[in-house]
Amino acid sequence: MNDALPGDLAPAPSPYGPAGRLLLNSCKALSVAGGLLFVGLVAMSIVSIVGRKLASAPVPGDVEVLQMVAAAASASFFAYCHMNHGDVKVDFFTLRLRARVIHQLDALGSLLVSALGVLLFWRAGVGALSTLESGETSAILGWPVGWAQLAMLPGFALLALAGLYVAGWHLGQAWGGAAEGAAEGSA
């Protein structure tokens, strides 16, 4: 990860160039927004639970709000996680491979992540347009369901871009750092 540890004098520099840092900062901003949405959902849930127990007055439609907002908030974290190489990897079989090969495999994985981001963007977009067209609303509050689905699209778009960028970065490391990779792989 690129975060500084307690006691470090300076944060670790980003391995990415200017475009990558811009993408990383965009992913970070979206994930912070998603985190704030979850904090708001927790606050709403506490108010609703306390209101239900003490005054028989829960927040109307609290479950609907939770479902719709949590979907968008969850979609906001994937791209930042991928940009920071926070994906779950099982490197048992690749542990002893040369660095070049590992970067090539990571590039392939990032391309698959990008393809998944495109697929999710496409299908969520089609679903949102369909529900907006049909006029589907939530049962209690009457909120258009399609708007909640549309709110997931920025997260999926950034995931697709992050996957492409990280794939290119890994390929650059595989081919640009060939001399370093050979030395690391043989150690």
TrEMBL record:
Membrane topology listed for this record: Multi-pass membrane protein
InterPro entries: DctQ
Domain of life: Bacteria
Annotated localization: Cell inner membrane; Cell membrane
Record bears the keyword Iron-sulfur: no
Chain segments annotated as transmembrane: 29-50, 104-125, 145-167
UniProt domain Tripartite ATP-independent periplasmic transporters DctQ component: residue ranges: 42-165
Keywords of the record: Cell inner membrane, Cell membrane, Membrane, Transmembrane, Transmembrane helix, Transport
Protein function: Part of the tripartite ATP-independent periplasmic (TRAP) transport system.
Known partners and oligomeric status: The complex comprises the extracytoplasmic solute receptor protein and the two transmembrane proteins.
Family: Belongs to the TRAP transporter small permease family.
Protein name: TRAP transporter small permease protein
Species per Swiss-Prot/TrEMBL record: Sphaerotilus uruguayifluvii
